[in-house]
């Protein structure tokens, strides 16, 4: 199956809400890449190999409190891809 990646921002606004940004369609999760998240007041930018591929500016979805790093490997619809693994070389938070 296709191994596409995306970025979500979950927030509370009269119930659980979220925004979703799919990764560029020509990028496969099967290849090595450098992914990044730049969080500044009023904006979250998602980078891929040094290039911004999505930007979150919905003020409800831009955190104003400390965040944590989370990774989720899941199918959000019926999928039959079998076993999957992630290989992470390094993570830096600053």
Give the gist of this structure.
By secondary structure, the protein is mostly beta strands. The protein has strands at residues 6-12, 16-22, 35-40, 43-48, 51-56. The model has no long low-confidence stretch (mean pLDDT 83).
Q: First CA to last CA: what distance? A: 35 Å
Largest sheet entry:
3 strands, antiparallel
Neighbour order of strands in the largest sheet:
3-4-5
The number of distinct β-strands equals: 5
Helix and strand element order: EEEEE
Question: Tags for this entry?
Answer:
single chain, 94 residues, mainly beta, three-stranded antiparallel beta sheet, 0% helix
What does the model show?
It is a single chain. Strands 3-4-5 form a three-stranded antiparallel sheet, with no helix packed on it. A two-stranded antiparallel sheet has the order 1-2. The chain contains no helices and five strands. By secondary structure, the chain is mainly beta. It is globular, with a radius of gyration of 14 Å.
Helix-strand blueprint:
Blueprint: E1 6-12, E2 16-22, E3 35-40, E4 43-48, E5 51-56
Antiparallel strand pairs: 1-2, 3-4, 4-5
């Amino acid at each position: 199956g296709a191994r596409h990646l995306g970025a979500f921002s979950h927030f509370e606004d009269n119930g659980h809400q979220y925004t979703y940004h799919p990764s560029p369609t020509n990028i496969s999760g099967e290849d090595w890449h450098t992914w990044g998240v730049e969080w500044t007041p009023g904006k979250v930018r998602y980078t891929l190999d040094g290039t911004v591929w999505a930007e979150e500016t919905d003020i409800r979805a831009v955190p104003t409190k400390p965040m944590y790093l989370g990774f989720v490997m899941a199918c959000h619809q019926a999928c039959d891809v079998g076993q999957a693994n992630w290989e992470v070389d390094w993570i830096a938070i600053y």
